[in-house]
Amino acid sequence: MSARSPWERAPGEWSPRITLLERTAGDAQHVSLRLDAPILGRLYEYEGTFTYAIETQEHFNG
User: Contact, 25 vs 11, CB < 8 A?
Assistant: First the structure.
């Protein structure tokens, strides 16, 4: 017996919807994520801007 999510068997009109928007904002990355379910409405939402850099291994070893 496998552990299955109840959403795996849900018809399309009952399945949750994920919306992900990603864009650059100057030197930063902007992300907007929404998880919506029919009848229940918005289950989760995140929006934020972040920057990142690639660093050498020397930086982590001190």
Answer: no
Block residue for tokens 């999510």:
5
For the stretch 14-39, pLDDT in tens is 788 999 999 998 889 999 999 999 98
Q: Rounded to an integer, what distance in angstroms lies between the CA atom of residue 12 and that of residue 62?
A: 52
Q: How far apart are CA 35 and CA 16, in angstroms?
A: 7
Instruction: In whole angstroms, give the CA distance from residue 39 to residue 34.
Output: 15
Dihedral sign for Cα atoms in the order 40, 20, 31, 21: negative
Q: Is 18 exposed, middle or buried (0-12, 13-18, 19+ CB in 10 A)?
A: exposed
How large is the greatest C-alpha to C-alpha distance in the chain, in angstroms?
A: 53
